[in-house]
């Protein structure tokens, strides 16, 4: 359905995430991947969705001068929000361990924002999912990090991996949003273009 609806657009996904790329394939979209390096730094006063909205827009900015009316650039950002603090991607094993220790036995939100942009318009949407982690043992955390190396994932985990299957009691909201893209909201937005 979307392929026909968006046939007049050149869809550009500015994401190196294999999960986001797979979502676009699953939506049966024709798209190309274009990557530009951006320092993902945001003003300290921003909170929750304000951070991901800002970063999704920031990732779109380097493309601004090269976009035409026929282009549709899609950028996205995901954070884990715990106790009024944003948790991004861990830099190394120790940081991943610390993050997962903090998530263990706690509830957090996963927030993803998506920017849709071309030469003449930009829309930013976001979604939030609440995730309930059970208490994890140090051995479980160690096993997960060494086996799955979650260094490219916000909050140091992938819900679709082992830790999601054994460590998450329940979620409220979109499962796919936790994986990095609120597919249901993006679909609706794309259908309304």
Provide the succession of SSEs: HEHEHEEHEEHHEHH
Biggest sheet overview: 7 strands, mixed
Dominant shape: globular
Catalogue the unreliable spans: none
- Helix- and strand-based class? alpha/beta
The count of DSSP E runs of length 2 or more, i.e. the number of strands, is: 7
Radius of gyration: 17 Å
Estimated helix fraction: 25-40%
Average pLDDT figure: 96
Number of helices: 8
Classify the beta-strand content into a percent band.
Answer: 25-35%
Report how far apart the termini are.
Answer: 13 Å
Walk me through this protein's architecture:
α2 links the parallel β1 (10-13) and β2 (31-33). The model has no long low-confidence stretch (mean pLDDT 96). The protein has 8 helices and 7 strands. Strands 1, 2, 3, 4, 5, 6 and 7 form a 7-stranded mixed beta sheet that branches. α4 crosses α5. The chain has helices at 2-5, 18-26, 49-60, 93-103, 138-148, 162-167, 175-179, 183-191, and strands at 10-13, 31-33, 71-82, 85-87, 107-117, 122-133, 168-172. It is globular and about 50 Å long. Helices cover 35% and strands 26% of the residues. It has 193 residues and is an alpha/beta fold.
